[in-house]
Each structure stands twice: as structure tokens, then as C-alpha cells.
């Protein structure tokens, strides 16, 4: 038992393999000038680190409060688990960022795709999105569905 009350591995038996973990996912985000990663969520939290360019990144909490900020090179932003979040390149040059998600299978659900790209009937999309029939029809056409 360790000093914090947790079971600890005997230091005499520690190997390099004890420091290799596959429970995280890392990714690269490349955005052309004006490029957008639309509102989406994951079942894990996410950390974004800007390597090049200028990005506005943010999330919307369950009280519908938006937290967003213009991020420059070396800025870091964290997105809480399951919160809708987004990124927009607001610079005049391409942007590059790296993300880390704290789970082996973080999933990805893009909000607009979920509503308009799949097999959800237009009538239901209208009811749950509070959009008009014309707006839902336009969005479904944009996403290639009817």
C-alpha cells in the first residue's frame, strides 16, 4: 500500500512497459484560413494546443454559457467531457493544432451531421431543432439526404 492509500507496484519490479499506455488518443488539426471544425462532442475531455496560426476555440456548457477565446501559438484550451465545442481558424494563414483525448475510444458526434445527415425524419428534426420546414429541407439537401 502506498502513502496515499492506493496499491503501488513494488519499485523493484517496475519496467519500461509500466510507462506505456494506450488509453489516450492524439490527433492533428489542420485548418485552412477560415476553416471550421463544427460544433461536436466526445465522450471524453479534450485538450487542444495551437502550434501555428490563430484559432477561436470554445465550448458551450449545459447552462448554454459559451466559453471561447482567440488562441495563438502555444496557447492551450481544455474542453470538458461531452460538451459541445468548436474551432475556427480566424487567421490569414493555415493553422495547426494538436489534440489529446483522454480515452482509447473518445467517439465523435458532429451536431449538425447528427441532425441532418442521418435517417432522422425531417419532421422530427423540425420539432427538436425548432427550425422551419424550409430550413430543415435545405440542411438535409446540404448533407445529401432528404
UniProtKB/TrEMBL annotation:
GO terms for molecular function: manganese ion binding. Its main location: secreted. Oxalate binds at residues 42, 46. It is found in: Secreted, Extracellular space, Apoplast. Pfam families: Cupin_1 (PF00190). Mn(2+) binds at residues 40, 42, 46, 85. Keywords: Apoplast, Manganese, Metal-binding, Secreted. GO terms for cellular component: apoplast. SMART domains: Cupin_1. Residues 4-137 form the Cupin type-1 domain. This is Germin-like protein. Belongs to the germin family. SUPFAM superfamilies: RmlC-like cupins. It comes from Chenopodium quinoa.
